[in-house]
Design brief:
By secondary structure, the chain is an alpha+beta fold. It has 2 domains: 1-35; 37-322, Glutamine Phosphoribosylpyrophosphate, subunit 1, domain 1 (4-Layer Sandwich), CATH 3.60.20. It has helices at residues 4-13, 48-59, 65-78, 122-132, 140-149, 160-170, 240-245, 248-257, 262-274, and strands at residues 17-20, 40-44, 99-104, 110-116, 137-139, 187-192, 198-204, 225-228, 232-238, 285-291, 296-300, 306-311, 315-319, 321-322. The strands form 2 sheets. Strands 1-13-12-2-6-7-3-4-5 form a 9-stranded mixed sheet. The longest helix has 14 residues, at 65-78. It starts with a helix and ends with a strand. Aspartic acid (ASP) binds next to strand 9.
Length: 324
């Protein structure tokens, strides 16, 4: 484990363009030192601001990081206007909304659901898999059966807007994911609570118009999310196939274990992934990481990825640094 001073030194190496959560349209870029703080919650993309606000209610009342990340993840899941997570998510090419989610606590317990249909808040089902079953991951029909038996309601998750977008897509039926627009975007959320414990959650409807049955990185422990309470946590967004190939989030955590700051750790793994692809056009991957001291950082391939940070002193939306 690193000494506190080393952590702070590493963190100071990282700086980022900060936009306050209340003024994100007029992005004001300024240099900011990342300082150690606790409790703290960080999450991917602009919807992370709202997610963090919910999580903060728990963290600021001395609550558990696990509860905080769960309620945070539920914010975009429940929002029908968010087209990349949960209810309102864009469907696969057959018009089915299929959801992936996972959660991990400070003891290394984890739970996950993949290719789950008809349940608005898959992160809650993932937590139930973690707490109420001897397994880590349930998929498809079995995951749905478990959710229904656990009391979750079966719902139609395809909103009129998502259906309209899918019917438009059907006219050409080309699977050409465009980076940084809302036909993908996962919420990954990491929290460190007052007691010094880390947890994380990750939830998505995956790549829009994917093949029926496709599962991305987001429900895969070690790819879309990884938490080690001795070191830190990391989560991913972007093209899931690329993140899986690199075991992305687990590798980011290993870099932090070896002394890298969260930002340096994310950068190393983004660069590693970039080397796997001859062209990076339309290949976006972003990592977000939080260490045991409450220092955070992120890195991505292309500009456009941002993340939200909430603590006693901060309520920011920050542009991720990028390699291209
Ligand atoms: N990683 C997600 C997936 O591949 C999508 C995203 O985060 O943009 O399903």
């Amino acid at each position: 484990m690193q000494k506190r001073r080393t952590f702070i030194k590493n963190a100071v190496l990282g700086s980022a363009a900060i936009t306050t959560a209340f003024g994100c349209e007029n992005a004001k870029k300024e240099e900011e030192k990342v300082i150690a703080q606790k409790p703290i919650v960080i999450s991917t993309w602009k919807f992370g601001v709202q997610a963090n606000a919910e999580a903060w209610k728990i963290l600021s009342a001395n609550g558990r990081a696990l509860d905080a990340v769960e309620v945070g993840a539920m914010v975009p899941e429940s929002d029908p206007t968010e087209s990349s997570v949960g209810f309102g998510g864009l469907p696969d090419r057959e018009g089915k909304v299929t959801l992936d989610a996972c959660i991990m606590d400070e003891k290394g317990n984890c739970g996950s659901v993949a290719f789950l249909q008809h349940i608005k808040n898959p992160i809650q089902v993932a937590r139930k898999v973690m707490e109420d079953t001897p397994h880590v991951m349930l998929a498809g029909e079995g995951a749905l059966q478990f959710a229904l038996e656990s009391g979750f309601k079966k719902e139609n998750l395809l909103t009129p807007n998502a259906e309209k977008a899918w019917k438009e897509w059907l006219k050409n039926s080309k699977y050409e994911p465009v980076i940084n627009i809302e036909n993908h975007d996962t919420i990954g959320i990491l929290a460190l609570d007052e007691a010094g414990n880390l947890s994380g959650a990750c939830t998505t409807s995956g790549m829009a118009y994917k093949m029926h049955g496709r599962v991305g990185d987001s429900p895969i422990i070690g790819a879309g999310l990884y938490v080690d309470n001795e070191v830190g946590g990391a989560c991913a967004t972007g093209v899931g196939e690329a993140v899986i190939r690199a075991a992305g989030s687990a590798m980011v955590v290993e870099q932090m274990r070896n002394g890298k700051s969260p930002e340096e750790a994310c950068k190393i793994i983004v660069e590693r992934i970039a080397r796997l692809y001859p062209s990076l056009e339309n290949m976006q991957v972003g990592f977000l990481a939080l260490n045991k001291n409450g220092e955070y950082g992120a890195y991505c391939i292309h500009p456009g990825f941002n993340y939200a940070v909430k603590s006693e002193k901060q309520d920011d939306l920050i542009d991720g640094k990028h390699i291209v």
